[in-house]
């Protein structure tokens, strides 16, 4: 069955449609959704069946997935991170919500999620109400990964209708949140001192 194509407006996402999306996630569904950078592929991180499906869509083994979580706010983070030193907390507080992925030391909850010996986890709090409202209604973070285009010139697809055509038989929902950007998040490794800029993306880090 083809995926649902759901239009949501970033300024005011329809709570009824959010509720519908959350139910699909709880049932093990995989969704494509907008962020403040590129479109993401996500599922409920507490649902093993969903993680397996996400890995199948992505074409990777569950143990090989580079984990990135979409969180509602900073309070979610301590559930999955070993410790958050004051300098790291301050850096994240200055830059979130925003176009950043912060790599942090994973605690034992993360390996349980994916049956893998993961030492780190990427944390995102995007500056976009659509994924934030989904996570808030779901009650826990989304596992998130980027979608990529087969086109050698366009690495990240931006048109939700084209995304739908490419993924409608692979996922359960594609959310149309208007055109996305084609620059990914800036990645900052906070497991080292000083912090290491792993990838310069859309976000300009403020120290």
From TrEMBL:
Transmembrane segments: none
Record-linked SUPFAM superfamilies: YrdC/RibB
One GO MF term: double-stranded RNA binding
Residue ranges of every copy of the YrdC-like domain listed in the record: 15-203
Entry coiled-coil feature ranges: none
InterPro entries reported in the protein's UniProt record: DHBP_synth_RibB-like_a/b_dom, Sua5-like_dom, SUA5_domain
Name this polypeptide is given: Threonylcarbamoyl-AMP synthase
Species name: Marivirga atlantica
């Amino acid at each position: 069955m083809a995926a649902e194509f759901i239009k949501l407006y970033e300024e005011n996402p329809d709570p009824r449609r959010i509720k519908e999306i959350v139910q699909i996630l709880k049932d093990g569904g995989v969704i494509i959704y907008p962020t403040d950078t590129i479109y993401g592929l996500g599922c409920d991180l507490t649902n093993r069946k969903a993680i397996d499906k996400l890995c199948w869509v992505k074409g990777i083994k569950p143990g090989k997935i580079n984990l990135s979580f979409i969180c509602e706010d900073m309070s979610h983070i301590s559930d999955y991170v070993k410790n958050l030193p004051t300098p790291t907390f301050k850096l994240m507080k200055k830059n979130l919500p925003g176009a950043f992925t912060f790599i942090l030391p994973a605690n034992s909850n993360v390996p349980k999620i994916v049956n893998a010996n993961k030492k780190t986890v990427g944390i995102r709090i995007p500056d976009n109400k659509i994924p934030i409202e989904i996570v808030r209604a779901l009650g826990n973070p989304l596992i998130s990964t980027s979608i990529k285009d087969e086109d050698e010139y366009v690495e990240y697809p931006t048109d939700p209708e084209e995304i739908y055509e490419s993924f409608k038989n692979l996922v359960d929902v594609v959310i149309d949140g208007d055109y996305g950007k084609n620059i990914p998040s800036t990645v900052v490794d906070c497991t080292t001192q000083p912090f290491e800029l792993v990838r310069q993306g859309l976000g300009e880090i403020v120290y």
